[in-house]
């Protein structure tokens, strides 16, 4: 039995905090979005059963409160990647983009062999995790643009105006939901040893 260190303590803490904060951000965002009658896409009685109807003030309160620790956690994570050198394992290079499709086809059982893993992550993981970092930055910028459209009018204008910034913010949220679903499926496919590495920091061979 061999213990292999995979994830540092700081990385693991940031990962689980991010999971918690992102869940609250999406939940509170849904409360904000569906508080407007024009955007409710389910029958009102269903919305009532789900507890997501007419809770604008509550949703905004949670959203604007959680966005600060969410942003701080993201900053700590990015700074850690930069100072520790772990960004070399996470950020994709040109070869990563060439290998994404073969890796995805292998995961879908449409290809027998996948490109060899270089470092901690395969090509698809590198691209996906890098995109999540960019999505986090995009969410903060678009969120700020629609939160303070007068105070940061230049940012709102840069993002195409308030309606388009709001649209981008919503699309980024859908991107996070899609990533979360795929991420959980991949973790379940990889098994307990992989999940253990994000809890305890090591894998066993």
UniProtKB/TrEMBL annotation:
Protein location: Cell membrane
Membrane topology type: Multi-pass membrane protein
Protein name as it appears in the record: Cytochrome b/b6 domain-containing protein
GO BP terms: respiratory electron transport chain
Signal peptide coordinates: none
Domain of life of the organism encoding this protein: Bacteria
Keyword match Aminoacyl-tRNA synthetase: no
Domain Cytochrome b561 bacterial/Ni-hydrogenase: 7-201
Pfam families in the record: Ni_hydr_CYTB
Organism: Peredibacter starrii
InterPro entries hit by this protein: Cyt_b561_bac/Ni-Hgenase (IPR011577), Di-haem_cyt_TM (IPR016174), Hydrogenase_cytochrome (IPR051542)
GO cellular component, one term: plasma membrane
Keyword Coiled coil: no
Main location: membrane
GO molecular function: electron transfer activity; heme binding
Annotated PANTHER family: CYTOCHROME YDHU-RELATED, NI/FE-HYDROGENASE 1 B-TYPE CYTOCHROME SUBUNIT
Coiled coil segments of this chain: none
Positions of transmembrane segments: 20-42, 62-83, 127-147, 167-188
Keywords annotated in UniProt: Cell membrane, Membrane, Transmembrane, Transmembrane helix
């Amino acid at each position: 039995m061999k213990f292999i260190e995979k994830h540092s303590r700081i990385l693991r803490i940031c990962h689980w905090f991010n999971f918690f904060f992102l869940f609250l951000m999406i939940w509170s965002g849904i409360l904000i979005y569906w508080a407007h009658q024009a955007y409710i896409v389910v029958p009102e009685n269903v919305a009532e059963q789900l507890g997501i109807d007419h809770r604008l003030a509550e949703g905004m309160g949670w959203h604007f409160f959680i966005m600060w620790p969410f942003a701080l956690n993201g900053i700590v994570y990015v700074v850690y990647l930069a100072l520790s050198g772990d960004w070399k394992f996470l950020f994709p290079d040109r070869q990563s983009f060439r290998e994404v499709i073969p890796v995805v086809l292998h995961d879908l059982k449409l290809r027998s062999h996948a490109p060899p893993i270089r470092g901690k992550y395969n090509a698809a993981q590198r691209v996906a995790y890098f995109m999540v970092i960019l999505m986090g930055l995009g969410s903060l910028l678009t969120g700020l643009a629609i939160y303070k459209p007068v105070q940061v009018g230049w940012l709102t204008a840069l993002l195409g105006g308030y309606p388009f910034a709001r649209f981008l913010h919503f699309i980024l949220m859908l991107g996070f939901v899609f990533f979360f679903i795929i991420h959980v499926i991949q973790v379940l496919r990889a098994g307990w040893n992989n999940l253990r590495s994000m809890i305890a920091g090591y894998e066993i061979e």
